[in-house]
Design brief:
Blueprint: E1 26-27, E2 31-33, E3 37-39, E4 45-53, E5 57-60, E6 66-68, E7 72-73, E8 76-84, E9 91-99, E10 102-110, H1 122-126, E11 133-145, E12 150-155, E13 158-165, E14 185-195, E15 198-210, E16 214-219, E17 223-224, E18 229-237, E19 243-245, E20 251-259, E21 262-269, E22 277-287, E23 290-300, E24 305-306, H2 309-314, E25 321-331, E26 339-343, E27 346-350, E28 365-375, E29 378-390, E30 393-394, H3 397-401, E31 406-422, E32 427-432, E33 435-439, E34 442-443, H4 456-460, E35 467-477, E36 480-492
Parallel strand pairs: 3-10, 13-15, 17-23, 24-25, 30-31, 34-36
Antiparallel strand pairs: 1-2, 2-4, 4-8, 5-7, 5-9, 6-8, 9-10, 11-12, 11-14, 12-13, 14-15, 16-18, 18-21, 19-22, 20-21, 22-23, 25-26, 25-28, 26-27, 28-29, 31-32, 31-35, 32-33, 35-36
C-alpha cells in the first residue's frame, strides 16, 4: 500500500510500520500482529494485518469510519482487512485486540493535512515520542540494506536508525532509485518507533540529498584475519585533502597517498588475541568551509571464547564470539531454530540459530557459537551457528551396555536405584527390566564442576528404591561399562 500523505507533527500520533517480517511481528504471549500501526490514504483504501493467535480473539472499539473484514477469530493465522472510505479530515483510532486475557493495541491513522516539518536534532528524536513524525538532516552511515533503504543518519548530536526509505513515488523496496550512498547528507522525515532497544524512523520520505565529496570505493579486505596485517582503503575525494583518524588502538594509520581525485589510506592492523571485533572508520574532507564524511566498516576475526551459560549472560553485548554447550531445555512453539539451552550455571535463549537443517528436540545436547546480544533488556545469543549436535537416544539398560564408549553421544536411561555407592557425588546403580548399570556420578546440570558436582541426591531427597531419569555418555572403567557425565532429569520417590 502506498502512503500518499506524510504524518505531520500536528496530526501524527501513530507510527507507520508496514514492512514487518514474520520475526518482527508485534508480540504478546498469546497473539502476534504483523503491524501495530496502520495508515490509510485520505482518498480511502485497505491495509491488511495478519493475526497469529494461540486462542480465540476479538477486536473491539472499531469506529464508524473504519470497516474490518472480520473482528474475531480462532487459533491460527488470520488476515484482517482494515478499510476506510475517503476522508475530509484526519481520522485516528486505537482498536483493541484481546486474546487469552492479553490486549494488543492497533493504531489506525487516515490523514488529510500536510505540514512542512522543522528539522530536528537527532538527540531530540532519541528523546522524543513514538508515533510522532520527525524531519532530520545528517550523514548517511552504516548502510545495511539497499533494497528497503536501512541505514543510520548522524548529526553532531547523535545517530538514528532509518528502517525503510520510500522512493520518489512513495513506494517501498526501491531504494537504489534514489542514488543515496554512504557519506551523503540527507534530509528525511518519518514516524518514530522503538523496536527492541533501537529507536527508528520508519519508511521515511526523502526531502533532500546532498552528495558527499568523498567516497570509499573499496577496501583491500573487509575482514582482517586474527593475525593482523595491512588494510588499504581506496577513496575518491573531490574536496580539499583527506584526513582520517582511527577510532581504536588496534587499527593505526600507516600512510595517506593522493593521486588527483583518488586517494589510498593504509592501516596497520594489530594481532587479535580476543574475540571478533569491528569498527567504523571515518574519512573526512572539506570544501568551502563545509565538511564531508565517508565511512567504512572493518571487522577482524578473533578467537572464540569458551563460556558456560552464566559467563555468557554476564558478558557485554558486542562482536566477540562465544562457544556454549548445554541441553536444549525449551523450543519456540513456532520456530525450531529459536530455543533455550541450559547447563549447571543457568539458562539462555538462542535466537535464529543456523541449525543447518537439523530438527532439534528437548533434551538434545548442543554446542553453539554466536554473539552476546540483547532484546528488550534480555540477554540472548545472536548470529549463532549450531557447531555440534547430539540427539538424545532413549534406551534400555541392556541396549546402553552394548554401546561404544563416546563423549559425543548422549543416552537417556530410566531405572530404579538399587544402591548408592557414593552419595556426595551421586555414584549409583540403577536397573530396569532389561538389566543393571553403574552411574559414575549424577550431576545437577551439564558442565557442573568442583563443589557444584556434589550433593544432588541429598538436596533432592533421592533414596534407594526411587526411580530416576538421567542423560549421559557411555564410558567404561577397567573394562566395566558405566554411564559418565550423567545429568539429572527427574525422579519419582518409591
Amino acid at each position: 500500500m502506498k502512503l500518499k500523505y506524510i504524518f505531520t507533527a500536528l496530526a501524527a500520533v501513530f507510527a507507520l510500520f508496514t514492512s514487518c517480517s514474520e520475526e518482527e511481528m508485534a508480540q504478546l504471549g498469546s497473539v502476534q500482529v504483523s503491524q501495530s500501526y496502520v495508515a490509510i490514504p485520505a482518498e480511502g483504501g485497505t491495509c491488511e494485518v495478519t493475526v497469529r493467535a494461540n486462542a480465540d480473539w476479538q477486536i473491539t472499539d472499531v469506529p464508524e469510519w473504519l470497516t474490518l473484514s472480520t473482528d474475531h477469530g480462532t487459533i491460527g493465522e488470520t488476515v484482517v482487512k482494515f478499510t476506510a472510505g475517503a476522508a475530509t479530515s484526519t481520522n485516528t483510532a486505537t482498536v483493541l485486540l484481546t486474546c487469552d486475557g492479553e490486549t494488543q493495541r492497533i493504531n489506525v491513522l487516515q490523514q488529510t493535512e500536510k505540514v512542512d516539518l522543522p528539522i530536528s536534532k537527532i538527540k531530540d528524536v532519541l528523546n522524543g515520542v513514538d508515533g510522532v513524525t520527525y524531519r532530520v538532516k545528517g550523514v548517511v552511515t552504516g548502510l545495511s540494506n539497499t533494497i528497503y533503504g536501512n541505514y543510520d543518519v548522524v548529526d553532531e548530536t547523535g545517530s538514528v536508525y532509518i528502517y525503510g526509505t520510500l522512493d520518489a513515488s512513495g513506494a517501498e523496496k526501491n531504494f537504489a532509485s534514489l542514488g543515496i550512498e554512504a557519506g551523503d547528507i540527507v534530509t528525511v522525515e518519518g514516524p518514530r518507533t522503538t523496536y527492541g532497544s533501537t529507536i527508528e524512523l520508519v519508511n521515511v520520505t526523502v526531502i533532500a540529498i546532498e552528495k558527499s565529496l568523498i567516497k570509499v570505493d573499496s577496501l583491500s579486505t573487509t575482514t582482517v584475519e586474527k593475525e593482523g596485517g595491512e588494510l588499504v582503503a581506496y577513496l575518491t575525494c573531490k574536496g580539499e585533502g583527506v584526513s582520517v583518524e582511527s577510532p581504536v588502538d588496534w587499527l593505526a594509520v600507516k600512510s595517506v597517498k593522493t593521486f588527483g581525485q583518488n586517494a589510498e589510506v593504509t592501516f596497520a592492523v594489530a594481532a587479535n588475541a580476543g574475540g571478533d571485533r569491528k569498527t567504523s572508520i571515518s574519512f573526512v574532507t572539506t570544501s568551502k568551509g563545509k565538511t564531508y564524511t565517508a565511512t567504512a566498516d572493518v571487522t577482524q576475526k578473533g578467537s572464540i571464547i569458551a563460556a558456560n551459560v552464566s559467563e555468557f549472560l554476564a558478558a557485554s553485548v558486542g562482536d566477540s564470539q562465544y562457544r556454549v554447550t548445554g541441553l536444549v531445555s525449551k523450543i519456540h512453539e513456532k520456530y525450531n531454530n529459536n530455543f533455550w539451552i541450559q547447563d549447571a550455571t543457568g539458562e539462555m535463549y538462542a535466537y535464529k540459530v543456523n541449525a543447518q537443517g537439523v530438527t532439534l528436540t528437548v533434551g538434545d545436547f548442543v554446542t553453539l557459537v554466536g554473539k552476546r546480544g540483547e532484546y528488550n533488556g534480555s540477554a540472548q545469543m545472536t548470529e549463532a551457528v549450531l557447531e555440534k549436535h547430539s540427539a538424545i537416544q532413549v534406551v534400555t539398560v541392556a541396549d546402553f551396555l552394548t554401546k561404544s564408549d563416546s563423549n559425543d553421544v548422549y543416552y537417556e536411561l530410566t531405572g530404579e536405584i538399587t544402591s548408592i555407592a557414593k552419595e556426595d557425588y551421586g555414584n549409583i546403580y540403577i536397573k530396569d527390566a532389561s538389566g543393571e548399570a553403574y552411574i559414575y556420578g549424577v550431576l545437577p546440570g551439564y558442565g557442573a564442576t568442583g563443589a557444584a558436582k556434589q550433593g544432588l541426591l541429598a538436596a533432592k531427597g533421592i533414596k534407594v528404591g526411587d526411580t530416576i531419569t538421567i542423560r549421559g555418555n557411555k564410558g567404561s572403567y577397567k573394562g566395566s561399562p558405566q554411564m559418565v557425565n550423567a545429568v539429572y532429569v527427574s525422579h519419582t520417590s518409591k
